[in-house]
Amino acid sequence: xxxxxxxxxxxxxxxxxxxxxxxxxxxxxxxxxxxxxxxxxxxxxxxxxxxxxxxxxxxxxxxxxxxxxxxxxxxxxxxxxxxxxxxxxxxxxxxxxxxxxxxxxxxxxxxxxxxxxxxxxxxxxxxxxxxxxxxxxxxxxxxxxxxxxxxxxxxxxxxxxxxxxxxxxxxxxxxxxxxxxxxxxxxxxxxxxxxxxxxxxxxxxxxxxxxxxxxxxxxx
Length: 220
Known about the structure:
Elements lengths: L2 H13 L10 H10 L5 H13 L5 H6 L2 H8 L5 H19 L11 H9 L6 H11 L9 H9 L9 H11 L4 H17 L26
Helix pairs in contact: 1-11, 2-3, 2-8, 5-6, 7-8, 9-11
């Protein structure tokens, strides 16, 4: 068994299914992927709740909304002026290319969709892949800081290696299974939040047990 599959099995046994991504519709999930940049999910949830409560969580409403008004709705997510421009860029992309409906993206092949998403202002590889995986059900593996930190601490790959190098590692070691990619990324995020912090908490504390990966020979 590969090291990556061993890590997956241990995390799944410890934490169970995570059933990501939080969101009621593919469009909401895509918005969440953009808003979660440089913040935590609780702040994103508040921003999305603002839009939902104002009955503005649609492409049509957001497309017609003044930028200043949208910024106020997105304020809880942090960097709200920057994120407003990014959300507006994504909305404009949907309207121009897919008649304002994210569902119209589904027939397009994954490689082309990824290129298109990366061409949108403020959308990088992690955000693009999050949209592909969680909103559009494409088997792509999302790489984030939690993933890089956990793997580098277990001597799988150096933290400084590129996004593409980390991603290819998963593609080479795992079956191309949408559900595994979905759960594995979510499990690594949970591990990062609980244990694999900038200052590691491998042995737990009064509220959590020790990290399920602690027994791996490669742990450092």
